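A quick aside before the break. I want you to see a complete sequence-to-structure record at least once, exactly as it would be stored in a machine-readable document. Don't worry about memorizing anything.
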Amino acid sequence: MNDKIKWLDYEFTSLKPDAPWNDVGGVYIFCGVNQKNEWQSFYIGIAQSFRERFSSHEKWDKAAKLGATHIHALVEENEERRVAIEKTLIGLWKPPLNTNHV
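That is the input. The structure line, written in tokens, reads:
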């Protein structure tokens, strides 16, 4: 069973990186639980296809070294909404691997 996690008002599904990914678009967060037992984001991104994007993501190894253990995924087919959600979440949490959005 997949856990549901809220980031703001958005409900994400929490999955392990080796989960079978669907060919759907959305927003994703590479994250792990910090010392306060809270989810911490290390990278936030968007994808037209989770399956294609996660087959060899260039940021996962760096995120894992920082403590990422899960990927939180939100299916959102509308590209404009994906971009808006990504921008909002990056602006709020400022993940360390989102260097192009600073």
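Two observations worth writing down. The domain at 3-101 is CATH 3.40.1440.10 (GIY-YIG endonuclease). The mean pLDDT is 94. We'll return to this after the break.
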